[in-house]
Amino acid sequence: MKRIFNQETINKIGEKIKVAGWINNRRVHGKILFIDLRDMSGIIQVVFNEKNQEPYNAAQELKSEWVVEIIGTIQKRPTGMINSEIKTGEVELQAEDIKILAKSEQLPFDIQELKVSLPTLLDYRPLVVKNQKIKAIFKIEEEIINSFRRTLQKLQFTEFQAPVIVPANAEGGAAVFHIDYYDYDAYLTQSPQLYKQIMLNCFERVFTVNKVFRAEPSVTTRHLAEYTSLDMEMAFIDSWEDTMEVAETVIRNMLSDVKNNCSEELKTLGVVLPQLNDKLPRLKMREAQEIIFKRTKRDNRKEPDLEPEDEKEICLFAKEKYNSELIFITHYPTKKRPFYTYPDPKDPEHTLSFDILCRGLEITTGGQRINDYTKLISNIKKWGSDPRDFEYYLQAFKYGMPPEGGFAMGLERIVKQIIGLENIREANAFPRDMERIDERLSLLQPKKKTAKTKTKKKTKKIKK
Ligand code: AMO
């Protein structure tokens, strides 16, 4: 008999069927034993009656998280026994045969309540992924990626694959992971920035969903060492504001897709999605700093960037004044942005760039890029780099690059903010940070030098 999913049992009243899943819990009521069987589609109540001796006896030893296959007949539940909390709440399965597919050891804690600290939650990720709230987070995350793809595809963008191993760091700063690449130095990419710009000469409008790496020097609730960057870049823009319009459309669609396609997950998590008005409010960074100063008397007006507490304050302002939990902050100072950022011709100390903040945290960065070859070269020099190190990338501009711009959204930050998670690590199934690569680094053995030596020898052998 072919297995069906729990949810499909609703339409099988009176039929003999087979289901399979994990034991969510088990209850004994006199001569009847109930289990809630969980599969990917949800839960079904299974009834073991003493009258049916063999399965009843087998069910006695069942424990949480054992994996079983059950054959039985679907019947309507008596009125009064209907459970409106679950999709299969009007039916139950009368067990006739049970097969144990796998056993589970005693659980270290209640994985349904999941009242554990974040380190424990992450240390036990392989077990904790069984929890329905955890599952809901990653289902919403999937929907956000799908929505990003759908929106951009509709706008005639093409997806491309960017490399992870790169020769230079695009975003500046020291937050980069160095790797031994055969006998050379290379880095793990911080961003597909340079490659998405190059690919404009191929497709004109591109996007990419990539793992990127930032060697963040501290542990915060908003930084990961490895995160997913949702990047887009578009050519032939009339103005940098074209990129803001696409960013706004992408985010609006993400929120409505999550609302429409993840209603169960939102209910499971008890989430209220961020409020939006007709148009995302826009403020220049300097205007935002003035507002923050007026509201809090905290004077960060000379700072080149918004501090985390400033981001929170300006979001509160946007919610109060514009009824919007998202806001564009524009015109960041030129010296704080990477070399490719387009300076505002009317005010070259500031750039035609933007961030989107959501509920107090930056979730997106973007803007117009310098597409003029000679200007780009002189900017690379101004930023203290050698244009020869960027020769490969510069070809894209040497041989004709249209006016262009783009943005990148941090996937885990979006999930964190829209779900209201306290820590970004909760929005990444397998987060990497200064302290962890699945296991806590403090629990791992220090690097073995011999392994590295072996790799080098192997490399040389291949070269011969
Ligand atoms: P930026 O460096 O601002 O811009 O990164 C873009 C977005 O990525 C997210 N983000 C992070 N998320 C988790 N952990 C981190 N350590 C982390 N760092 C950044 C944020 C941020 O808004 N090339 C430019 C984008 C562009 O202009 O197209 C860039 O990477 O949500």
Detailed description of the structure:
With 464 residues, the protein is α+β, with helices and mostly antiparallel strands. The protein is built from 14 helices and 21 strands. The strands form five sheets. The chain has an eight-stranded mixed sheet. Strand 19 (432-433) and strand 20 form a beta hairpin. Mean pLDDT is 94; it is low at 450-464. Bound molecules: aspartyl-adenosine-5'-monophosphate (AMO). Aspartyl-adenosine-5'-monophosphate (AMO) binds next to strand 11, strand 17, strand 18 and helix 13.
Q: Mind sketching the topology for me?
A:
Layout: E1 16-29, E2 32-39, E3 42-49, H1 53-60, E4 67-76, E5 91-102, H2 118-123, H3 125-128, H4 132-154, E6 158-159, E7 165-166, E8 178-181, E9 184-188, H5 193-198, H6 200-203, E10 205-213, E11 226-235, H7 241-261, H8 263-269, E12 282-284, H9 285-296, H10 308-322, E13 326-330, E14 343-344, E15 347-351, E16 353-358, E17 361-368, H11 373-382, H12 391-398, E18 404-410, H13 411-419, E19 432-433, E20 436-437, E21 439-440, H14 449-463
Parallel strand pairs: 3-5, 6-10, 12-13
Antiparallel strand pairs: 1-2, 1-4, 2-3, 4-5, 7-9, 8-9, 10-11, 11-18, 13-16, 14-15, 16-17, 17-18, 19-20, 20-21
Helix pairs in contact: 4-7, 4-8, 4-13, 9-10
Aspartyl-adenosine-5'-monophosphate binds at residues 171, 191, 193, 214, 216, 223-224, 227, 229, 231, 362-367, 406-410, 412-413, 424.
